[in-house]
Every structure is written in structure tokens, then in C-alpha cells.
Design goal:
Helix 1 packs across helix 5. The relative contact order is 0.19. This protein is an alpha/beta fold. The radius of gyration is 16 Å and the shape is globular. Helix content is 32%, strand content 20%. The mean pLDDT is 97. The chain has a single domain, classed as 3-Layer(aba) Sandwich (Rossmann fold), CATH 3.40.50.360. The longest helix is centred in the first third of the chain and has 15 residues. The chain starts with a strand and ends with a helix. The protein contains 5 helices and 5 strands. A 5-stranded parallel beta sheet has the order 2-1-3-4-5, with helices on both faces.
């Protein structure tokens, strides 16, 4: 199994990183092929709305560190996106890679029977961590991204939310969340 893990956090030891490490330990035990990317340490541009991916070519034409990330995503079986919640959404770093994934969609994708250049049936784990303990707060983040990610071919999707984990590493004390990561990971990774 090919797994791509993308961290959208600027904190290398933050709560979303802890959850990625938990998931990666399960993937290591299953002898999965794991590629990990920390967006904050990369040099990249956001989508430029040039629309080259919708006519001139079938891929993003921007030459930067995201080229290898997009290639890895296109070849993976499981994509793991992990981000803390900043100002009621994913981080700017995570949003940048999600925007660049627009290049996976074919021209006029909403009217196409096969809207994505990716193979359907890929799995997705979307990890969100937030300091706010109220689970109702920011519950709208995942559904808006899930729709587009499903169109792209990630049809087996899973959300893992960690609420009330403000301080870096606080999620280590939340066995309920760690167990959720283990359960979801083991259900997908073989």
C-alpha cells in the first residue's frame, strides 16, 4: 500500500504531527510504503488560476516543491491530510496543497462522468486538531473539502477530529483520540 501523509502545520511537534506519527507507526508495522511531506518546510506557490491544467496540459504547470507532492498523491492508495484549525479553517499551508490538487480535475469536471484524472477508489484520512473543545465549532470544515476530494477519486473518506487540544502535544493525553486514529488506520492499512 502506498500512503502519502501531508502535514499542514507549522509546528513539527504539534498535535496533528502526533496523530500522523501514530498513524505512521501502524503503517510501518504493516510494511506500507509511506511518503511524508511537511508543507511548511517547502517552497511553493498557491494555485495561480492559469487554467493550464484544463487545456494546455493535464497537470499543474507550476514548477516548485509541490510537483513531487502532486505526483505522490496521484500514485497513492491512501492520502492523509493533517492540519490544525486556524481561524475556523485548515492552515494556509494545507489550503495551498488542496488548491493545487485542482489540477487533478478534468476540464468542465462538474459535467463529466469521470471528473478526475485520478483513479477512483482511493482512501483519505482527514485529520483536524483544534484548541476549541466544542465539537460543534468548526464542524463545517471537513464537509466542504470532502465533496471535492470525493470528486477527485477519494471515495473512502474518514475524518479524525481532536477537539480541545490547544497546547502542543496535548493530544498525547487523549487516549480516545489516539484509539480513533489506530482504529481508522487499521481498517484501511493492510
Amino acid at each position: 500500500m502506498k500512503i502519502v501523509c501531508i502535514s499542514g502545520s507549522p509546528r513539527k511537534n504539534g498535535n496533528s504531527a502526533v496523530l500522523l506519527q501514530e498513524l505512521n507507526s501502524i503503517a510501518d508495522n504493516a510494511k506500507a510504503n509511506i511518503q511524508s511531506f511537511n508543507v511548511n518546510s517547502m517552497t511553493y506557490k498557491g494555485c495561480q488560476a492559469c487554467m493550464s491544467c484544463k487545456g494546455k496540459t493535464e497537470e499543474c504547470v507550476i514548477s516548485d516543491d509541490f510537483e513531487k507532492v502532486l505526483k505522490a498523491i496521484s500514485e497513492c492508495d491512501l492520502l492523509v491530510l493533517a492540519s490544525p484549525v486556524y481561524f475556523a479553517d485548515v492552515t494556509a499551508q494545507m489550503k495551498a496543497i488542496i488548491d493545487r490538487m485542482y489540477s487533478f480535475l478534468v476540464p468542465n469536471f462538474m459535467q463529466q462522468e469521470k471528473p478526475s484524472r485520478l483513479e477512483a477508489g482511493k482512501s483519505l484520512i482527514f485529520i483536524l486538531t483544534q484548541g476549541q473543545p466544542d465539537e460543534k465549532m468548526f464542524a463545517d470544515i471537513y464537509p466542504k473539502y470532502e465533496m471535492f476530494l470525493k470528486i477527485m477519486g477519494f471515495t473512502d473518506t474518514h475524518l479524525i477530529r481532536a477537539c480541545g487540544v490547544l497546547e502542543a502535544g496535548a493530544v498525547k493525553q487523549r487516549e480516545d483520540i489516539l484509539e480513533n486514529v489506530r482504529t481508522v488506520a487499521k481498517s484501511i492499512i493492510q
